[in-house]
Write a structure and sequence with these properties.
alpha+beta; DNA polymerase, domain 1; 2 domains; about 30% helix
């Protein structure tokens, strides 16, 4: 028995019939071919699958797609500008060397955007606390914290 799903992804209306057991990450990657959202652990421990749902960061590997009927979802593919320019948080990760292998980066950037939307000028303690559920095995987080601070400043136009 399929569920008729209707939602908005990256500003575009999407309709699909999905198995009720389909995870949101599977729907995003397999049905919509938006493969920037990564699957790392399948247990919501690593944060590589983080997307923004109705303004809040959500780990899409631990949520059923059917739970998001009518939702507004933004993936890493949906944050760049109309001419492909980097989102301020993406630019900050690049400028501050907040990435290495890149596997965690989409989820890290999406969670960092959420942090910046909820904390105008997050300090190091807030950033480290809020990114606790996003794992990076390469960087040691120092440059990620700097990137989130710079990205938050860029998002508020500072």
């Amino acid at each position: 028995m399929a569920v008729n799903l209707s939602l908005t992804v990256n500003g575009r209306p999407v309709r699909a019939d999905v198995d009720p057991r389909t995870l949101l990450v599977q729907f995003i990657r397999d049905n919509l071919q938006l493969t920037g959202t990564h699957v790392g652990c399948d247990t919501s421990q690593c944060g590589a699958c983080t997307v923004i749902v109705n303004g809040n960061a959500v780990k899409s590997c631990s949520a059923l797609a059917a739970q998001f009927q009518g939702a507004q979802i933004t993936t890493i593919e949906g944050i760049s500008g109309p001419n492909g320019e980097l989102h301020p948080m993406q630019a900050a990760f690049k400028e501050c060397h907040g990435l290495q292998c890149g596997f965690c980066t989409p989820g890290m950037v999406m969670n960092a955007i959420d942090v910046a939307q909820h904390y105008a000028a997050p300090d190091e303690a807030v950033i480290r606390d809020q990114l606790d559920g996003n794992m990076c095995r390469c960087t040691g987080y120092h440059n990620i914290v700097k990137a989130v601070q710079a990205g938050a400043a860029g998002m508020r136009g500072a």
